[in-house]
Amino acid sequence: MVDKDLKNDYDRIELGEMVQVALLCTQFNPSHRPKMSEVLRMLEGDGLSEKWEQSQNIEPPRYHRSFENPPQRYADYIDESALVVEAMELSGPR
Questions:
Q1: Per its UniProt entry, which superkingdom is the organism in (predicted)?
Q2: How far apart are CA 45 and CA 36, in angstroms?
Q3: Is 10 domain-assigned?
Q4: Residues sharing a CB contact under 8 Å with residue 49, sequence separation 6 or more, in sequence order
Q5: Direct distance between the N- and C-terminal alpha carbons of the chain, in angstroms, rounded to an integer
Q6: How far is residue 52's CA from residue 58's CA, in Å, rounded to a whole number?
Q7: What domain count does the chain have?
């Protein structure tokens, strides 16, 4: 994850924060992802812990919760397909 040329010459705390920001930016539901202005503030050290805590309380999509009891009929997957389309939409205008 870190450039090998850096060896151990990097701040591990900053690396952890960057990973958290990256994970926030890749949340399943685009509406849960931070805006770029929020990303910038988090990278500058403002608000990351609050945003991270909020993200930990978000319920995962239904079809990611459990693979122990998968749906038995095709119709059971129909509602789930809407979530996949939602994930492919961009988080906002570019």
A1: Eukaryota
A2: 14
A3: yes
A4: none
A5: 28
A6: 10
A7: 1
